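Illustration: DUF4249 domain-containing protein.
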Amino acid sequence: MMKTSVWMLAFCVTSFYSCQKVIEVKLNPSSPRYVITGNITDQPGPYEVKMTSSIHFDQDNNFPAVSGAKVYITDQNAGLTDTLTEVTPGRYLTHVLAGVPGHTYKMVVMLGNETFSSVSTMPPPIALDSLYTKAATFGDGTDVVALYDDPVARGNFYHLVLAVQDRPSREIYLHNDKINNGATVTHVLNNDVDIRRGDIITVSLQCIDTDVYDFYYSLDQALKQNSAVISNPKTNIRGGAMGYFSAHTTRTRSFAY
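Result:
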């Protein structure tokens, strides 16, 4: 019987500041895969694209950076293309782009004879109205609750990122307005972070497009599988790479517990 190799990859999910949460995923491709993560927001740049490679499951969790790629991002509304600069191995930064709600952005990554591309449209921003804590629904911990108003117009998708003292939660928090459109959302963030008195709690509310929502949703479902090897998360990147490219707005609040 032919033995199937198992590979592991890491998605670096950008939150606020420069902190990130790294989500490791074991998957089952026939060979190592490139992993691309790119983000543009309505906050001041520069914006970042990262490129790494998956590794075999028995290797150390040191995902190799991929250097030497040519990376471009185009604001298709403004007709402006930014050529990114590799500032450290596998980390590419913009120079002149500004994230504008309603604009559509196209990312192109070229490496050797391979080309990867993705398109993402930045939704309008939604205010993060307030934050508070409550006793955890399960266990002895503390849940964080975020309140925000979903607009009357349908088709809004949200990704929330939680950090305590700059320690990002590994949980994936998502919401869409398919059921409670136009209502005030009370979003309980069950978390894996030990919250102590005096800690600074920070939540970022990202308005994302439908393809990016599908990526996070499929990643969350994959991580909840009980098998040792999980199905590949859905990607919005064409050309054979994994990962995501997201043009999103972000609103952030912090408070002391």
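Reading the tokens back as a structure: Residues 210-223 form the longest helix (14 residues).
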